[in-house]
Design goal:
Shape: elongated
Helix content: 40-55%
Number of helices: 14
Largest sheet: 5 strands, parallel
Number of strands: 17
Structural class: alpha/beta
Strand content: 15-25%
Oligomer: single chain
Distance between the termini: 75 Å
Amino acid sequence: MPQLDKPKILVVNDDANSLFALTSLLAQWAEEEPYEVIAARSGEEALRQVLLHDFAVILLDVNMPGMDGFETAEAIHQRGRSANIPIIFITAFVADELDRLKAYQRGAADFLFTPVIPQILHAKISVFVALAVKNEELKKQARQLHQRTNDLIASNKRLLQEIEDRKMAERQNHAKDEFLAMLGHELRNPLSAISSAASLIGLPGVAQEGAARAKKIIQRQSQHLGRIVDDLLDLSRAMSGKILLNRVPLDLAALIANCLETYRATGRTSDYHVSMELEPGWVEGDVTRLEQIFSNLLDNALKYTPAGGSIDIVMEVEGDDIVLTVHDTGVGISAELLPHVFDVFVQGTSTLDRAQGGLGIGLALVRRLAELHGGSVEAESAGAGAGSTFAIRLPRIERITETKPETMDTTEQSKPTILLIEDNDDGREMMAMMLSCYGYEVQHAADGLQGIEVALSYRPDVALVDIGLPGIDGYEVARRLRANGDTSGIRLIALTGYGLAEDQRRVLEAGFDMHLVKPVDIESLMKAIGSLTNRKNSSAPAA
C-alpha cells in the first residue's frame, strides 16, 4: 500500500514564546506519530495556510491582535473545503458559559486553558490525528473502489462488444453459407436447362421446332448465367471502389423509358400493370451503370410482386436532385428486414425452393452504384403484404443539347477480315462459326506464337486476342504485332475475363485498341469491330 500523506496540525498564536513552546512540544511527539506541524503568528497568516493545506486539527489562540481567534475560526469555516476542520481554542482566561457558546457557534471542537497540560494536549491531538489518518484511508479506499468500478464497467463494455462482434461474425458466416447454397442453386438451374437443351438437339429424330426451342433456352439461360457472374463481379468491384464510371450528360427519363420498353418488348412485364410518369431530367452518369440501377430495382419489383400486381415508376425533379421512385404492390418488407435490405446477401426469404430466386446482391449493388454517382437510395414499406417503394436520388445537371452520333457502316460489303487468337478450343470454334455466319472471313490460332505467324501471313483487318494465352500472353502478342511494320496497322481487340480499370489500362498500354470482357455477345462484338474498322482517320485507342 502506498504511503499516505502525513496529517498536518496548524498552531496559531501571536505570542512567539507560546508558539515556540507548543510547536516544540508537538514536534517531539511527531517523531513517534505520523503528523506534520505548521505555525502561524496571526489570523491572516492562518487563513493563508488553510488555503494551501488540509489540516487534521487547528490549535487557535483566542486573544490575538487584529483578527482574534473567534473571527479567524468563523472565516475558516465559511470556506467549503475547510468547513469541517476541528478547532481547539487555547485561552489564558477561564471562559464562562457565554464565551463557550460563542466559541462553539464559531465551530470550536474543544477548549484548552494555559498553561497547557502536555498529556491532555497529546491525548486530544492523537484523537484528531487518528481520525484524519482514518479519513484519508477511507478516501483512498473510496478512490480505489471507484477505479475498480470503472475498470469493471470498461471490462463489461469490452465483453459486451466481444459478444456482439462474435454474434455479428456468426451472422455473417451464416449469411455466407446461405449465399453459397443459393449460388449453387442459381447456377445449377440454368446449367441443367442448358445441358438438357444441348442433349435434346443431339437426339435423332428431334423436330425442327423442338431444336429451335432448345436453342432459345440455351441462349436465354446463358444470358442468365452471364448476369449472375456480372452481378458478382460488379458487386466486388463496387465494394472495393474499383468500378470506373464513364460519365456523360444524359436524359435520365429517356434512359428509363428505353429500358422499360425493352422489358415490355421481351414480355417480362406482360403479367403486371406497369405505369410510368417521367419528368425530363438530366444527370451526369454512366449509361450502363444507370441502366443497371433501374433494371435491378425493376427486377426486384417483378420478383416480389405476384402476377396481376401493379408497379408504378415515377421520376421527378426536386430542387437540385432527380428522384426516381419504383413502387410495387408486392409482398412488402417486414420491419425487421427493412433496415438491412441494402446489405449484401440479404433477402426476404432464405429457402432454396423460393420462387423468386436471386443472390440477394442486387439492391446492395444499387446502393453502391448510386453512391458512386453522388446519390443515395431509400426503401419504404408498411410491412409484409403492403408493397414497397424504392427511391433513387441523383444530382441534377442543366440540360445538354443532344448531338446525333455518327452512323457506322456495317454493310456486308465492308466486312473486315478477322483473326481470332484463343486457346479454348470450344470457345474459339463457336466464335469463329458465329462470325462466319454473319459474313466475316475468319482465321484462328490456338496460342500467341501461332497467332503472330498467322497475322504475318494473313494480314487481317482485326485481331481478337485472348489475354490468358499459353506461351506468350495477349499483352506480348499485341506488343510484337505493334512492333512489326507489317502488322502494326491491325486493329486489336482484347478479350478477357477481367474488367477492372487496371486491366483496361494494361490492355491499352500493350497496344490494343479496345478491351472487351467475356462473355461477349455477337451483336456487341460486331458493333466493336465496326466501330474500329470505320474510324479510318483515327488512331486513338478506345477503352
